[in-house]
Amino acid sequence: MLESESVVNTLLRDYLYDLVKEGKRLDGRTFDEIRPIEVKEGTFTKSEGEAWIKLGKTQVLVGVKFDVGEPFPDTPDKGVLVTNAELLPVASPTFEPGPPNEDAIEISRVVDRAIRSADAVDLNNLVIKEGELVYMIFLDMYVLDHDGNLDDALTIASLIALGRAKYPKVIYKGDGDVEVLDEKESLVLKDLPINFTFVKIGDALLLDPVLEEEMVAEASITIAINQEGKVCSIQKRHGYFTMEEIKKAVEIGRSKWTDVASVIRREI
Amino acid sequence: MLESESVVNTLLRDYLYDLVKEGKRLDGRTFDEIRPIEVKEGTFTKSEGEAWIKLGKTQVLVGVKFDVGEPFPDTPDKGVLVTNAELLPVASPTFEPGPPNEDAIEISRVVDRAIRSADAVDLNNLVIKEGELVYMIFLDMYVLDHDGNLDDALTIASLIALGRAKYPKVIYKGDGDVEVLDEKESLVLKDLPINFTFVKIGDALLLDPVLEEEMVAEASITIAINQEGKVCSIQKRHGYFTMEEIKKAVEIGRSKWTDVASVIRREI
Amino acid sequence: MLESESVVNTLLRDYLYDLVKEGKRLDGRTFDEIRPIEVKEGTFTKSEGEAWIKLGKTQVLVGVKFDVGEPFPDTPDKGVLVTNAELLPVASPTFEPGPPNEDAIEISRVVDRAIRSADAVDLNNLVIKEGELVYMIFLDMYVLDHDGNLDDALTIASLIALGRAKYPKVIYKGDGDVEVLDEKESLVLKDLPINFTFVKIGDALLLDPVLEEEMVAEASITIAINQEGKVCSIQKRHGYFTMEEIKKAVEIGRSKWTDVASVIRREI
Amino acid sequence: MPLYVEKKPERLITEEGVRTDGRLPHEIRPIRMTVGVLERADGSALVEWGGNRILAAVFGPREVHPKHLMLPDKALVRARYNMAPFSTPERRRPGPDRRSVELSKVIREALKPAIFVENYPGAVIDIFVEVLRSDAGTRVAGVTAASLALAHAGIAMRGLVAACAAGRVGEFVVCDPNHDEDMWGEADMPMAMMMESRKITLLQIDGPMTPEQFEEALNMAKRGIEFVYELQKEALKRPYVLVERRIRGV
Amino acid sequence: MPLYVEKKPERLITEEGVRTDGRLPHEIRPIRMTVGVLERADGSALVEWGGNRILAAVFGPREVHPKHLMLPDKALVRARYNMAPFSTPERRRPGPDRRSVELSKVIREALKPAIFVENYPGAVIDIFVEVLRSDAGTRVAGVTAASLALAHAGIAMRGLVAACAAGRVGEFVVCDPNHDEDMWGEADMPMAMMMESRKITLLQIDGPMTPEQFEEALNMAKRGIEFVYELQKEALKRPYVLVERRIRGV
Amino acid sequence: MPLYVEKKPERLITEEGVRTDGRLPHEIRPIRMTVGVLERADGSALVEWGGNRILAAVFGPREVHPKHLMLPDKALVRARYNMAPFSTPERRRPGPDRRSVELSKVIREALKPAIFVENYPGAVIDIFVEVLRSDAGTRVAGVTAASLALAHAGIAMRGLVAACAAGRVGEFVVCDPNHDEDMWGEADMPMAMMMESRKITLLQIDGPMTPEQFEEALNMAKRGIEFVYELQKEALKRPYVLVERRIRGV
Fold first, then answer.
1. Which domains does chain C have, with CATH numbers?
2. Helix (H) or strand (E) holding C53
3. CATH class (in words) of the domain with range E31-248
4. ipTM here
5. Average pLDDT of the residues in B81-92
6. Does E189 touch chain C (CB under 8 A)?
7. Which of residues 123-182 of B touch F (CB under 8 A)?
């Protein structure tokens, strides 16, 4: 959201609010319409699973890499998933180089929480030797072009990249050492927890906001829905909502899940 | 001390110097009088030994935690004591969040040096397996409210927290591993090295200064005295002293040791 | 080089360019003349090999220390060389305390690259137990006084310090442990890759520039030549060169190698 | 490292809905609030909630440093959530981690809508939440404490922000999850509201819930929040007097 | 850790000069350049060169932050070379290391001579080179991409900067070393030129060469640069259209 | 790691008071002072004291960066104590640790009372103490060197600050403890004075002393300081000329 008002900002705000009152949006979409999702063809990373997607003009690139290492002491029977998001300075004049800031950390935790709470990645399947050696999955999310709604774009790209990922089989040789085989195994995705981000402008809830909408909105929220229609995670961002607004947002998310899931499934 | 002069500062300085000339202090104490020490009742941390004390309006909270780990290579027969002080931003409008600054580091080292040079904590008693596994003591000092003389307040709270601390007994099972028993052991405090901080205003040495006294003082010094009346550590802070002033400060500290020690012993 | 123009800078620039047009330099040297190299007598570090040298008014101190540790996984049969340069704040009013900045990192990598690409230090000779334990060499370069051409000064000092270095013999006792003997071994220097730095002022290439020449130069380059006259490494710095200028610089370096090498050899 | 191993209880809740600490699903842990515990801060509060001990302090409105962060038309609001090294079973290394960075933001966004930021153009309001002892629910206790500290500091507000979590344990929706339920339960849902206007200013979920469970959790959290709000008002009315109550039926 | 072990090929080049990827010494890998891949950046380009994928973006001329870095009489030029965590066989920890700090400087110095910095007093031009996939030669591909992004951003330039490396493998001097040659070859020599004026703006060597080999390498790199320069011009002429060509004989 | 193991000597001092380096309790190690060893610094000095090698440099009075640190009515004084990686038996990682942060402060406070800070309003005086070789007593050697560098830089001072440590080894109070005594002795007491006014500007103690031992140590350190002060004056009178003297009876 805008931290402070300038004349231009005020004009933009008034314009968008007026549009919404007329039931319209800047790019002609309906309030609950998601921008086109395009998956770019080609190989762009050295990862074991990747996806470069465009959600409207927002572009993100996600790569999944594998390593082997020790499990966490409290989950000796599970692989390790590490999530990281970088708001690259190429993506926006307001992004600066440096370690992940508050926004980048929040976004990566929101995507991470959706995936984990739906148990989407079968971490139990990723144990090489219980308590000693497991697979580690690094989910690295790169924001390349920021035109709003990074969370949903990164979630979609992450699910595709995870669904595409293949890791080498290994044989445990004892003493923390493995023999790496040529054979590859596909990562099992058990669920598709999809994030839906809404902003509030006046009385309206706008799904999949563009940057300008994010800038002037009073409030925003991200809701993850899984294949059973359960609410897996929520992150209210700035501003406030009524209970009714939140329930409505959940319902919209549930109604849109199949559309987005079919794009993801097609690309995996 | 004040880094620079403003009109208010100059007025405060003049006022305090005039008071001292008349043999008085801001809060009516005599020059060598320590503010009341109050120990707050309750459980405020998840540590194995804690103390929340007030020295006048200065408030500090100290917690002692235990872990097991490798000893230092040059002291294979001793436990490890780690000391850390945080000048929390809640304690003063001039304290900022972030890693310990110069002042916080100095304070933690001054308390640490008093405890170590008096050999107050029996580190030899904290060996699980010589050269391999020892207890580690973390002494974390939190400053909550800064009204002067943090060093003495933190030293008192640290000694009480250490004296109260109980750690779980363990049985060494070989290979760096232990079995943790339910039985607890009390930490042995062999000495009570108590810090006494003085500031110099004009010709006077003021014990246990409040914040305003610290701000206008020409010089300050912290002296640790142990139960045998020995000088265990000294830290001259800003300004200068004559030899006679330092000897006098040592004598005052020695004369006050029993009073403070009895408070500490009562609370352990 | 100068980031921006002031009146003084413009005057200095004009003066130096005019001098060069007349075939002269600020300190009377010819274009391809190196300043006197002086090696200071005494012991100034606690290292196993050191050199404090003056190149004109530029002063640097290099110390070589040894440790034992694990080799890199991809070179189990080689010792480890770690290079580090510090532009100490004592050396120039423009140097600031803190971790190595861009310039310090570049300089240390330029010296490191010269030494490595000539294979000057026989790392194969520094294995204690292949794949497990090797010697680690720390080459720490300290810039004490900056009057231009730090690269060449640090390279010369590094080669002398390495050539003088003696490390304790050890016997491998298994399990990552060694017995340290009193006997010392000399480090073997197989080559002397010497850096030659040039700046371009007008049409002239000036070898071993002083600070003022560096400040006004259009371009600069550092070239390492080894004992066989091979080009071992090059680092073009700011500005641009023609191919002919670069070839000429290489030829000058080759012609000066013996002079500098004889100083180094004399001091080892 | 091996000194503090936690074991999952055999079961988190009985068929009758009795929880590991003896509470029924709708019951909240004991809470004690003390306003004005610090001298130097402009406002402060200590909240003891179950085994949590949360100290909140507010400084401001005051000058912004560094200057370039200043907002010309309203107050800048900053919040820091920080866990003490001695707040957890195993000693915690000081300094922010990713979780505390996120929680700092979430807490800031929970409180900012309640502050009349336009009343303090160019100033900053600094909110510090110090977790001295953690026992599940530190962020809701932190928001509750910080809201008290803001009021105690005399910051103009649209109303108090009160907070409480709900969660899912097996098929039970429970109020104010405890440590066991937080660690091994199915879902956690911290929530905060401005009670006067019934606006939700903090809502997070971690763990799946059906739409029905979600609605039940919203209501459960709301009832907890209403109770917390009453305690807050009492604590502010008689500052320096303790407010404590163990409730069995909210 | 042990998932990605690399093995040195039995030989890097045959007696006939055939390299591990089948190229002859003078041949360059396939290159594809796309200008304008990003919306928000003022200029951008994606260069796919062998297995490298390099994204470059330019912002500016724009205001300098922090202010004290501002140069009154010309533009400040900043460059950052950054490797993605997923750009290498083993996952790379994010953040700059010593190599990327040096390469950022080298790339900046390669491009700055081509920019009319005096046209933009007090402003900054920010150049970002993101290595998405690395496969030997990322810095020359990065300079090439950044030069396109500068042109695409409309920054006034003396001409394009094109880049290509040469190297030595055994006694062969080769153009555009591949991954194997970079890892196990004798010498590597990245180079960049402003082709209009034939000025060298980037030159590094790592590994010994005789004066004769060095001269051959200079010529080899120059021929590669000439080719890259032609591709650049083509890519700029028809932006959003791909330029791709596999060349066997330059 | 195992390359540099230190062994405690069988005894640190004989019954006759002979120390591990042959000195008697009141004797000081050889000292050599050189003023003006650096060209670029405004003032500099090298102090060789026993096995210590300490280089001090002073810059200033000069402009303060960043500006907000500026004091309107006097000079800001900054000091940095820094140990070289090659200054210790085992290689030291570069960068400040907690000890060097504390010593930087202690050294600054030792020197500041001697500087006429009011003569340089708004300016900064930067003092750098570089420990090239450490051998017990680096802080007193550092204060001594820095004081010379200040004088050499022409900074207006109330007088030189000279420094020396005393210590306790068994029941002996000794002057200028050596490495063994520093490591295994009972107490260490570094001290610095402005000799003209006999004011103590640095005093630290680490290790217990009876009031009698403490008084003896004060006197012992003072006699050492008096000697160091004489050497300082000599070194300043004939800069670039070495002052060296081994004293057996101070």
1. 3-267 (3.30.230.70)
2. strand C49-55
3. alpha beta
4. 0.95
5. 98
6. yes
7. none
